[in-house]
Design goal:
The protein is of the alpha/beta class and 603 residues long. It has 4 domains: 6-202, P-loop containing nucleotide triphosphate hydrolases (Rossmann fold); 205-260; 278-490, Rossmann fold, CATH 3.40.50.300; 528-601, Helix Hairpins (Orthogonal Bundle). Helices cover 41% and strands 21% of the residues. It contains 19 helices and 20 strands. It has helices at residues 44-52, 84-89, 95-104, 118-131, 148-160, 172-178, 200-232, 241-260, 318-325, 360-364, 381-387, 392-395, 404-416, 434-446, 458-464, 484-490, 528-555, 560-563, 565-601, and strands at 6-15, 18-28, 33-37, 59-64, 70-73, 136-140, 164-168, 181-186, 189-193, 278-289, 292-303, 307-311, 333-338, 344-347, 371-374, 377-380, 422-426, 450-454, 467-471, 477-481. The two termini are 46 Å apart.
Length: 603
């Protein structure tokens, strides 16, 4: 293994009375690609800033190889300078490199830095990082505000980059495609798995099972020592003082272990009663602005209990479609009818009404007092906040003290207390840790009402959506049963012909006419090798889900790890391998299907 280009050795850091890191060791080797995973508030962003050299540890060492170039893209980038090109070269990148990187992400170099959307800010920040050609790339929630197509472009750039990477993200599909190592920040320390995120969940289950077994041993030992202490310590105090100190140490271990146990979130949606069976019916709706057509004629019927995902490039009209379906914007053509007894809760991705100086309790009790109405019953604001993992101390703190994930959790807490039978979530997964995402998925799956979800999180959509509505930015709208992967299988090449974003500058004029070249013979079908792989991938897509389900059923045996640790380890490795094989088969199938269709149609 090559020596690390950057390493943290026995690092300690406190945030006031709270210890964030206590003996953190972390090494990043050249071209390694790692994810950094941990709950909200564990210190992932702080650790990235320490790796970037922006924060110094209280104790321990940060070692960097000489001349190592580090590019850090924060969770909330700030774009400065007169133009976007000015911003991209401010870090030392050559102008031609900056222009090339901006072009990759569909950004006009001469555009002003004022008035950028969230997606544009993210793409410009990423472009600057790539333009600087770093040895180490540190990315904090890089997929936030990016549409699915931009995320896939980012994945391609990361795959071709020579830089080492440490990535903080909640996007499971993104991490599975981009990482080969996992760092887990938990209990103020970092653990390392030399496998990508696809193997992370199974590994964590093994670690937690082993810790639970160790905890049971400590509890049993503590019980025995307590019995000894009560029965005979007075007569043997002098010669057994060492044993008594060992008991005190055991007690302290138990105290520390209990202190580290994370509270359980107790999320729930306040129900306002059932809506009518028909929630929304749209017939032939269309919308345009000026010369641009956002939506051509589109019809859909959303029934009670449906979970509808809306996907597409930024600027394709997703929010406009939602507002038309809700009756907030009138279509140019067609009609929209809303069902009876609708109570709507809307979580906006902008978080515009979370003022930095507001106290958390004021956000949850905008009318004053100390009670929150939850599912028709009053609950003390502190108790309700604890359901969302906020402490009593945080209740009296301003919003600006919260991490991005904690702010999003606060919005969820407020919205979910509002009685609703139609829930609209606009990019709800931004900044949430994976534990919270899993709990939110469970909550939404059990929600009796109707869900409309605008999201770029492919895994989140696959786990929740009963249908997916896709907009391609040219006015076309397609609805497909199922989630994102179902949509791709049924609509290969749907996004393939999307034109460059409007902000992309026109291609430079050619000074001289190129010499004519001999025409190439045009392929009309896949090569034999590609045809074989297409058929093989299709077979794997049919067989692997059943195999994965069988492995998951075997792993669900609660006694398996204790009875057969080696067998459990073999199952988890087989499960991770099967999942990775399925992801690769789906990607290859999609790519080859698009290629086959293009060859056969001559496009």
């Amino acid at each position: 293994m090559k020596p690390p280009i950057l390493a943290l050795k026995n690092v300690r850091l406190a945030d006031g009375p709270k210890m964030l890191f206590d003996g953190v060791n972390l090494a990043v080797e050249p071209r390694s690609r790692a994810c950094l995973v941990g709950r909200n508030g564990a210190g992932k962003t702080t650790l990235l800033k320490m790796l970037a050299g922006q924060i110094q540890p209280d104790d321990g060492e940060r070692a960097v190889q000489p001349a190592t170039r580090i590019a850090y893209v924060p969770q909330e980038p700030e774009i400065v300078g007169a133009t976007l090109l000015d911003h991209c070269i401010a870090g030392g990148a050559a102008e031609y490199q900056a222009q090339a990187a901006l072009d990759i992400f569909g950004i006009d170099p001469e555009k002003s830095t004022a008035g950028l959307s969230g997606g544009e800010i993210r793409r410009v920040a990423l472009a600057r990082a790539f333009a600087e050609d770093p040895d180490l790339l540190l990315l904090d929630e890089p997929t936030n505000h990016l549409d699915i197509l931009a995320i896939e472009s980012l994945e391609a750039e990361l795959a071709s980059s020579r830089a080492a990477m440490v990535i903080v993200s909640h996007d499971r599909a993104f991490l599975e495609r981009t990482t080969q190592r996992s760092f887990w920040l938990e209990h103020r320390k970092v653990r390392r798995l030399d496998k990508g995120f696809a193997a992370f969940d199974a590994w964590v289950e093994q670690v937690l099972a082993a810790e639970a077994e160790e905890g049971r041993k400590i509890d049993k030992k503590l019980e025995q020592e307590e019995h000894w202490l009560q029965r005979g310590v007075t007569g043997r105090r002098a010669r057994n003082e060492g044993r008594r100190r060992a008991l005190m140490d055991l007690r302290q271990v138990k105290v520390e272990r209990l202190r580290e146990v994370r509270g359980d979130m107790n999320m729930g949606i306040a129900s306002s009663g059932l809506s009518g069976q028909r929630v929304i019916e749209a017939k032939g709706i269309a919308k345009g602005f000026g010369e641009r057509t956002l939506l051509k004629s589109f019809s859909t019927r959303i029934l009670r209990g449906d979970r509808v995902a809306i996907v597409g490039p930024n600027g394709a009209g997703k929010t406009t479609l939602v507002k038309m379906l809700l009756g907030q914007i009138a279509p140019d053509e067609g009609s929209v009818k809303l069902g009876a007894n609708l109570e709507i809760a809307y979580i906006d991705q902008a978080r515009a009404d979370l003022k930095p100086d507001m106290m958390l309790r004021d956000v949850l009790t905008p009318l004053g007092g100390d009670q929150v109405m939850v599912r028709g019953l009053p609950k003390h604001v502190n108790a309700y906040a604890k359901d969302f993992l906020f402490t009593d101390a945080q209740i009296r703190q301003p919003v600006r003290s919260l991490s991005g994930g904690e702010r999003n959790r606060l919005l969820l807490a407020r919205a979910l207390a509002t009685p609703a039978n139609l829930l609209i979530l606009d990019e709800p997964t931004n900044d949430l840790d994976m534990d919270t995402l899993d709990l939110l998925e469970d909550l939404l799956a059990d929600f009796e009402g109707t869900l409309i979800l605008v999201s770029h999180d492919r895994d989140f959509i696959d786990r929740l959506a009963t249908s997916t509505i896709a907009l391609n930015g040219r006015g076309d709208v397609v609805e497909t049963p199922g989630g994102w992967q179902d949509f791709l299988r049924q609509n290969p090449g749907y996004f393939g012909a999307i034109s460059a974003p409007a902000s992309t500058p026109p291609a430079p004029k050619v000074a001289a006419k190129a010499a004519p070249q001999a025409p190439e013979s045009k392929k009309t079908k896949l090569s034999f090798k590609d045809q074989h792989r297409l058929k093989e991938a299709e077979g794997l897509m049919l067989s692997l889900p059943a195999k994965i389900a069988k492995l998951e059923a075997d792993m669900a045996d609660p006694a398996l790890y204790t009875r057969d640790p080696a067998g459990f380890d073999k199952l988890t490795k087989s499960h991770a391998h099967a999942q990775a094989e399925l992801v690769k088969a789906e990607e290859d199938w999609m790519k080859l299907e698009e290629m086959r269709e293009a060859l056969e149609t001559g496009l």
